[in-house]
Amino acid sequence: MKTIHIILALFSLLPSNKSDILNPQDIQKEVIEGIFDGYDEEDGYSFLVIDKESETESVMYFSEVLEAVLKEFDLKSTNLVGKKFEITYEIEELEELDDEEYGESYEKYTIVKLVKK
């Protein structure tokens, strides 16, 4: 009887839906330089990024920031707007399934490290 309880306990630790299952190959790590442009509840944390090859500007939005980074930098205040950072972030390929098991893929950008320049 103990075996059944252990197996059930192990199953309860598994993710509840398929979109929670992460494959390490689905996570890429990138490093860029950007100028902090602010925080918005809808869009997240935005940075102005200049592509050195094409010399074009674009805005990158990050939906999440690790708690350790937020403890070091208060990105919800306006004090850091206009400051330059080296941004290390992860791109996570995710898929959400609806009730009919139809999958929609999307990418989640998470800042894992910031270095003020």
Describe the structure.
The protein has helices at 2-12, 67-72, and strands at 27-40, 44-51, 56-62, 64-65, 84-97, 103-116. The chain has 117 residues and is mostly beta strands. The protein has one domain: OB fold (Dihydrolipoamide Acetyltransferase, E2P) (Beta Barrel). The chain has a 6-stranded mixed β-sheet with strand order 3-2-1-5-6-4.
Q: What structural keywords apply?
A:
single chain; 117 residues; mainly beta; OB fold (Dihydrolipoamide Acetyltransferase, E2P); 2 helices; 6 strands; globular; disordered N terminus
Summarize the structure in short.
With 117 residues, this protein is mainly beta.
Structural class: mainly beta
Q: Give the termini distance in whole angstroms.
A: 60 Å
CATH topology: OB fold (Dihydrolipoamide Acetyltransferase, E2P)
Tell me, rounded to a whole number, the average pLDDT: 81
Beta-strand fraction estimate: over 45%
Number of strands: 6
Q: Radius of gyration from the CA trace? A: 19 Å
The best one-word shape is globular
| Helix content estimate | 10-25%
Query: Which CATH architecture would you pick?
Result: Beta Barrel
Strand order of the largest sheet: 3-2-1-5-6-4
Largest sheet descriptor: 6 strands, mixed
CATH level-1 class: Mainly Beta
| Count, helices | 2
> How many discrete structural domains?
1
SSE pattern: HEEEEHEE
Spans of at least 5 consecutive residues with low confidence = 1-22
